[in-house]
Write a structure and sequence with these properties.
Four Helix Bundle (Hemerythrin (Met), subunit A); flat; about 0% strand
Length: about 100
Amino acid sequence: MEVPEVEEVKALLERLGERELIGRVDSFVRMNEGLEAKRGEDFIAVSILGFLEGILTVLGERYPEDKDVRELHEKVRARRAELDEQFRRPRIPYLEEG
């Protein structure tokens, strides 16, 4: 399964010298790949994007002046929110009287 943001985050981690986090990203992605057939690709993508969003939140605190961190965080956050919306239950309208 391809989540393009994974490679973008890994490249950013490499540039920042946060190499130990690259291994954690790889491990998380591998762990979730086995669940694709059971949960569906979009569900797994939301999970992976949520993990990346967490990493980028921490990086934003470590590197507050880094524009690339802020921009990638916003991109990942927006994509995760967009996919996450698919899994929300629709609101059931109350019966209107009258």
